[in-house]
Design brief:
By secondary structure, the protein is mainly α. The chain has one domain. The protein contains 13 helices and no strands. Helix 3 crosses helix 8 and helix 7 packs antiparallel against helix 11. The protein is elongated, with a radius of gyration of 20 Å.
Length: 344
């Protein structure tokens, strides 16, 4: 195999490293509620979440991966430098926000990085706009609002239905039910987030497939970026699951303790609402932020009791981080592309 082909495969490994970072950065999305309510210990929660992260990649198709692979950037612009710079932008932004304990979106980091690197190479004509960009950008607002609204309505409805039940019994029942809601949310997390890296990897292999002529694995010979080989699906699922098992405790603390106080009843409502939102988005191939979704859902649970139950100052910091994610990752990736082009 040529040195160029080995270089491309090294970038695939870096993409899987991003998937791993995505897993531990966004572990809070899957486990913060179930840990903060003490239904599961932190170690048990990450194993529980990681298992369903992995299972999800086989249950929900690859619509989101196809959006990333062929729906955002003109494929003729994509090369190894664009992909590597895009991954660098996303990874750097994820690590910065993880260190600061801010639950930002790994999804929007990779979208911003990918788009920013493509623009640095070929200008804004490199973007397939409007295309899937419109639904992706619109869901930055819709996903948390949808999560918040469903969580608020579910909390109010269940509170009314259970108003004559003993609090102790309600708590005991929802400790069991929250295991199911946490599993459902982790399925939603895996169904949307792992697929983004699948799309990036396949886009790279399609752009550079001439390097793999004669390579014994047929999965490297792809006709377009809508074909997702099984090995890519499995590799991304494993990387996401292992990353989740590594935890992301700085962000878990922000999501599970600082935003609002949760009980098993509230944790169930937040996770169920978030899972519904993610299932809908994944079905339609919309790459949404699991972070935005669960933040909205947790806020909805708190607001259902009283507005002051939500620490809106913390929520405000999170929103500012959301707003900055795509342009920040795009800017880092754009600079990285220019450096790579000069070096390689």
């Amino acid at each position: 195999m040529s040195a160029a082909a080995l270089f491309v495969l090294a970038i695939v490994i870096i993409a899987l490293a991003f998937d791993f970072i995505n897993g531990f950065h966004d572990a809070a999305n899957s486990i913060a509620t179930v840990v903060s309510t003490r239904v599961l210990s932190p170690s048990a929660a990450v194993v529980w979440a990681a298992a369903f992260n992995f299972i999800a990649v086989f249950l929900f198709g690859t619509a989101v991966a196809k959006t990333l692979g062929s729906g955002l950037v003109v494929l003729s612009v994509v090369d190894h430098n664009v992909i590597l710079a895009g991954l660098f932008g996303a990874i750097v932004w994820d690590l910065i926000t993880w260190w600061l304990g801010l639950p930002t979106s790994s999804s929007h980091a990779i979208i911003g990085g990918y788009g920013g690197a493509a623009v640095a190479k070929a200008g804004f004509t490199a973007l397939l706009f409007p295309g899937k960009w419109v639904s992706t950008l619109v869901f930055i607002v819709i996903a948390p609002v949808m999560g918040l609204t469903i969580a608020l309505l579910l909390t109010v409805a269940l509170s009314w239905a259970l108003r004559r039940s003993l609090p102790r019994r309600v708590d005991r029942v929802f400790r069991v039910l929250q295991l199911g809601s946490a599993a459902a949310y982790s399925l939603g997390h895996g169904s949307n987030d792992a697929q983004k890296t699948m799309g990036i990897i396949v886009g790279l292999l399609v752009a550079e497939q001439q390097l793999f002529t004669g390579f014994p694995v047929q999965a490297f010979h792809l006709t377009d970026a809508t074909a997702i080989p099984l090995w890519v699906i499995v590799a991304c699922g494993v990387a996401m699951g292992v990353g989740t098992m590594s935890g992301g405790w700085r962000i878990v603390k922000t999501m599970g303790q600082r935003l609002t106080k949760l009980q098993p009843f509230g944790g169930f409502c937040a996770e169920t609402s978030g899972a519904i939102t993610l299932f809908v988005a994944s079905h339609f191939g919309i790459p949404v932020s699991t972070t935005h979704t669960i933040t909205g859902a947790i806020s909805g649970v708190g607001a259902a009791h009283r507005l002051s139950a939500v620490r809106w100052g913390v929520a405000g910091r999170i929103v500012w981080a959301w707003i900055l994610t795509i342009p920040a990752a795009a800017g880092i990736a754009g600079v990285a592309y220019l450096v790579l082009r000069a070096i390689i």
